[in-house]
Amino acid sequence: MNPAPTVADRDPGPPGLAARVPWWRRPWIVPLWAVTAIFIVWRVPDYLGFTPEKSLVALRSHEHYLVMSAHVALGTVALVCCCLQMWPWLRRNRPRAHRISGRIYVAAVIPGSLLALATSVQSMVPVPGRIGNVMLSLLWLGTTLVGFRMARRRRFAEHRRWMIRSFALCFSIVVNRLWTALWFAVLMPFYPAVDVAFWMDVAVASIWSSLLVNVLLAEWWIERTSRPRRPTGPRRDTPVP
Q1: CA-CA distance, 109 to 77, in Å (whole number)?
Q2: Most confident of 56-60, 86-90, 133-137, 172-176
Q3: How many CB atoms lie within 10 A of CB 186?
Q4: Long-range contacts: 210-215, Cβ < 8 Å, 24+?
Q5: How far apart are CA 87 and CA 95, in angstroms?
Q6: What integer pLDDT is reported at residue 68 of this predicted model?
Q7: Is residue 6 very low, low, confident or very high in pLDDT (cuts 50, 70, 90)?
Q8: Is residue 162 part of a domain?
Q9: What average pLDDT does this structure show over 25-48?
């Protein structure tokens, strides 16, 4: 039997009733949309335009490319919904749109993560890289389902924590490209040539870096934003001199 949610588990109400925060306290929303848009315009057409030769992922077969393309299409929907979910203005002023985009996100993640699992198993990267991608796929699916369940039970504090984890895993593919460039520069002096072995090691390092760093950042953000804020003014029961 599941224990009844405590007062600490419940929010005073749905996200639409959250307190207003000045826009300058959240300057990350514009860069988030910009990076997401650049990534989608830069990489997605290569998988949706029936051009397998442009794939960054080594493909085993045409079927592998089709599975990858379907995963990319659903992942694109998830990324856009992810940005909408993290947009404070939408959550506060358009709670219905927030809920709808959240349901679309979950609907995209469930098949998208399963397709990611399939492509991870077929991947031609070394075993450590495949293990990292399998873990990412399973964690993405699991955190999303738990977050959705918490929202259905109106345990919004827990819903927020689990969806932050889900969003961090969703965006690991975006930051993976940054880690690839970084590991390329770091590892290049240690290899005699930029060959297949070099690129495989870069791929493994970037897979694990994007996964672990995003998970750690999500936990740090959850811990930081879950602390009670210090009062900015004198307490009511404290006499003001």
Answers
A1: 9
A2: 133-137
A3: 11
A4: 210/172, 210/173, 210/175, 210/176, 210/179, 211/132, 211/135, 211/136, 211/169, 211/172, 213/175, 213/179, 214/168, 214/169, 214/171, 214/172, 214/175, 215/139, 215/165, 215/168, 215/169
A5: 11
A6: 86
A7: very low
A8: yes
A9: 78
Structure tokens at 164: 């932050």
Domain that holds residue 139: 15-225
Please report whether residue 38 resides in a domain: yes
Supply the pLDDT for residue 34.
85
Kindly state whether residue 106 falls inside one of the protein's structural domains. yes
Instruction: Give the count of domains, the chain.
Output: 1
Measured in degrees and rounded to the nearest 5, phi and psi for residue 26 equal -130, 65
Tokens at residue 204, please? 């493994």
Could you tell me the pLDDT band of residue 1, with boundaries at 50, 70 and 90? very low
The identity of residue 170, as a single letter, is C
Residue 239 lies in a domain: no
Distance between CA 104 and CA 128 in Å, rounded? 32
Query: What are phi and psi for residue 4, nearest 5 degrees?
Result: -70, 140
Phi and psi, residue 47, nearest 5°: -100, -20
Q: How many residues appear in the chain?
A: 241
